[in-house]
Automatic annotation (TrEMBL):
SUPFAM superfamilies: Metallo-hydrolase/oxidoreductase (SSF56281)
InterPro entries the record matches: Metallo-B-lactamas (IPR001279), Mito_Persulfide_Diox (IPR051682), POD-like_MBL-fold (IPR044528), RibonucZ/Hydroxyglut_hydro (IPR036866)
Keyword check for Metal-binding: yes
Protein's recorded name: Beta-lactamase domain protein
Species this chain originates from: Allochromatium vinosum (strain ATCC 17899 / DSM 180 / NBRC 103801 / NCIMB 10441 / D)
Superkingdom: Bacteria
Coiled coil (residue ranges): none
An individual GO BP term: hydrogen sulfide metabolic process
Domain Metallo-beta-lactamase, first and last residues per copy: 12-171
Species classification: Bacteria, Pseudomonadati, Pseudomonadota, Gammaproteobacteria, Chromatiales
Keywords (A to Z) from UniProt: Metal-binding
GO terms of molecular function: metal ion binding; sulfur dioxygenase activity
Length: 249
């Protein structure tokens, strides 16, 4: 398997490029709208063809590049079936693997950050989206977020994976790239150790986080698989415009 972790700095989002060396097929997981040219260039450099894009959930901090990549490359849009988006080509759900050439991607239903959130397991690694971050987790105060649901998603689904499973999150704000299930079980300050459900719910309720900067534009745009709304103000246009530079992790 070819594996690349690409970083978009405005929203601190990791996009994952996975490629099958035998068939040349590739998939992008959580692609971000302004960085689609970079992602296609990386795919071409590796001699691959993009066949799917796949998001972990309906994002609130950036707009997916799924629709643009479909137009530019002919890729198909995969997305959790539970969100019932009319623009998707391939609905995914837990229990039904997605094949990309010889690669097998197993969806894991992990609600809590949003009610439709999925993580994706690929053998010895898991892409955890916003459900489980390195030393943290996604917030639960919008998009039908639910702290008890997130607690069970992480503790019962993700923490049931082997300790050596590598954890690749959808975001990191400190420059970290990878963790492991064992590490997060032992030291995650929100969900690790002997943290109880009641303690976690109290912790999440007390965060008092600011209203997300781009949510009012990102959510409707992502419900259309990646359309930047026409009324995005000038100071937020960086979320929609093509970027010239984007450092990679």
């Amino acid at each position: 398997m070819l594996f690349r972790q690409l970083f978009e700095p405005i929203s601190s989002t990791y996009t994952y490029l996975l490629g099958c060396e035998e068939t040349g097929q590739a998939i992008l997981i959580d692609p971000v709208l302004p960085t689609w040219p970079r992602d296609l260039a990386a795919i071409a450099e590796l001699g691959l063809k993009l066949v799917y894009t796949l998001d972990t959930h309906i994002h609130a901090d950036h707009i997916t590049a799924a629709l643009t990549l479909k137009r530019e490359s002919g890729s198909r849009i995969a997305h959790p079936a539970i969100d019932a988006l009319p623009c998707i080509d391939v609905p995914v759900q837990e229990g039904t693997p997605l094949a990309v050439g010889g690669l097998r991607i197993d969806p894991l239903f992990t609600p809590g950050h949003t009610d439709g959130h999925h993580a994706y397991r690929l053998g010895d690694r898991v892409l955890t989206g916003d459900a489980l971050l390195i030393d943290g987790c996604g917030r639960t105060d919008f998009q039908n977020g639910d702290a008890p649901a997130l607690y069970h998603s992480v503790r019962e689904t993700l923490f049931s994976l082997p300790d050596g499973t590598l954890v690749y999150p959808a975001h990191d704000y400190e420059g970290r790239q990878v963790s492991s299930i064992g590490q997060e079980k032992a030291r995650n300050p929100r969900l690790g150790g002997d943290r109880s459900l009641a303690d976690f719910v109290a912790l999440m309720s007390a965060l008092d986080l600011a209203y997300p900067t781009f949510i009012d534009y990102a959510v409707p745009g992502n419900r259309e698989c990646g359309v930047c709304p026409t009324d995005v103000p000038e100071d937020l246009q960086q979320y929609c415009r093509q970027m010239r530079d984007s450092r990679q992790g």
